[in-house]
Amino acid sequence: MWQKKKVEGRQFCGWSPKALLRPKFSETVKGKLSLGAMILQLGGVKRGAKGEKLLKASHCYLSTTAGPIAGLLFISTQRVAFCSDRSIKFSSPNGELVGIHYKVSIPLRKIKRANQSKNAKKPSQKFMEIFKMDNFDFWFMGFFNYQKAFSYL
Q1: Distance (Å, rounded) from C-alpha 119 to C-alpha 33?
Q2: Cβ pair 64, 87 in contact under 8 A
Q3: Can you say whether the dihedral through the CA atoms of 94, 95, 100, 103 is positive or negative?
Q4: Facing residues of 138 across strands?
Q5: Rounded distance, CA 114 to CA 126, Å?
Q6: What is this structure's pTM?
Q7: pLDDT in tens, 81-116
Q8: Which letter, b or e, does each residue of 101-120 get, where b requires 16 or more Cβ atoms within 10 Å of its Cβ?
Q9: Looking at the predicted structure, is the pLDDT value of residue 14 above 90?
Q10: DSSP β-ladder status, 97-107 and 4-7
């Protein structure tokens, strides 16, 4: 039997507010504008080598030995690049605190392969592993649309 519930000023018929999986339209627009602003801050869609075209920009995490770093993964016709959302602070040789964005840029010609992986205990947690020719690898995780991002590789 359907019951009307009132939670935080909203009425729900027979289901919990936790069932709201999609963000509000205003939150979606805010997220898209935020992504666009970040792309522009990093040089825009047309920045890059001659003939390079941005194919996909995705929010994700780069796995490091110090823990995951949130940022944007850019996939273009010539490279895969990552830039952290926030600057990382460290001490310079003269003792000052300096903040820089964590950046990675991998030319496509130096990528040996890209693998899809998932957490054995939580199959919904998927990872993208990129191996370079020098056997160095990068792990990206936490994609909103994992399959779409991986398809551009």
Answers
A1: 31
A2: no
A3: positive
A4: 130
A5: 13
A6: 0.66
A7: 998 888 888 888 888 998 888 889 999 999 999 998
A8: ebebeeeeeebeeeeeeeee
A9: no
A10: unpaired
Rounded CA separation 61/69 (Å):
5
Compute the distance between CA of residue 88 and CA of residue 62 in angstroms, rounded to an integer.
13
Cβ–Cβ under 8 Å, residues 86 and 70: yes
For residue 36, the surrounding DSSP H or E stretch is helix 25-41
pLDDT value at residue 11: 44
The encoded tokens of residue 87 equal 């600057």
Nearest residue to 55 (alpha-carbon basis) of 31, 79, 28, 35: 79
Q: Which two structure tokens, joined as six digits, stand for 29? A: 């627009």
Tokens of 65: 């030995």
Non-local CB neighbours of 74 within 8 Å, separated by 6+ positions:
42, 54, 56, 57, 80, 81, 82, 83
